[in-house]
Automatic annotation (TrEMBL):
This is Bug family tripartite tricarboxylate transporter substrate binding protein. Residues 30-67 are annotated as: Disordered. Residues 1-29 form the signal peptide. It comes from Marinicrinis sediminis. PROSITE patterns: PROKAR_LIPOPROTEIN. Belongs to the UPF0065 (bug) family. Keywords: Signal. Residues 40-55 have a biased composition (Low complexity). InterPro entries: BUG, Bug_dom1.
Amino acid sequence: MLNKSVKWKGFTCLLIVLLAISLAGCGSASDNQANSNKEANQSSNQAGSSNDQGSEGMADTYPEGPVTMIIPNPPGSVLDLVARAMQPAFREITGQPLVVENHPGGAAVIGTQKLVESDSDGYTIGMIASGVMSLRPIFMDVAFTYPDDFKPIIGVGDFEMVFAVKSDAPYNTMKEMADHYADLEDPIRVGTPGANNFAHMNAVLTSQKTGIKINHVSFDGGNEATLALMGGNLDLAIVNLTNVSAQLEAGNLKILGVPANERYSNLPDAPTLKEQGIDVALRSTFSIYGPGQMPAELQTKLNEVFHQVMDSDKFQDFATKSNLLEARMTPEEISAEIQSDVTNAKSVIGELQN
């Protein structure tokens, strides 16, 4: 029989062996965990690097499918016709179709909101009038603001607003009309296609600059205002050139001036208001936009694509036949114009709402 001393020594040795094995196991587990964490971090970093490269290179292969262009106006409108005229060249340049979707209603707010809510992957863009960006948030309760919710891509066209009167009116410029009515107590009747828009603002600003009193008459559109002018129910109509072009050619109407910084290239005989000493130059344009979170590289790629589209023979042929005045503004110029429009609108907001 072993004595107690031998038993105790054997038990002690066993404990030492077990403790050594345990410590070795802990160290191995700790090392394994550290290695595992290191591998996970390396994998994560590689994945992050891969994602960054994918984000930076997305414009290289874009577009890989159809691109939808939202038009917040009805079929047959100016923006709709321009968008459809872009389709052939867009397909030739990119190899992908440009799908035009009309979402009219709510003074163009419905379609604009749809763009704002779209994915920012470059496959949904929109062509929208500048007044929707600058004036709607001031005069209407809308769920979007500029520039937060939009990424400007390229300016497209100018609606070419004109100050038109009947051809037998005893004045040929807006300055002459202002002088003619300067001493009259009764205001002149000025018609525009709606209230709180650029035409209405131009009427108010012109009244301020010349001192003539006006009675603003709001119509559902420029064609209705033109008919009222032809019928003798207005003294002056401030509408788009397309609304009066047929009557101008027929000799029934004439243009007293245009609210622009320089004469329209396709209407060279019509003087600007500024040339006449009336400092009013508030124009309505339309541009292509993406949702606010669209990556900058896609914004640049789309700008390049639509420059090529607008340079194409097919689009230029359309522009000539439709008398479209291009307004190829850069994203920075678009933003500057919208901010200027906001400032002008706020300066006359009291009179616009009267």
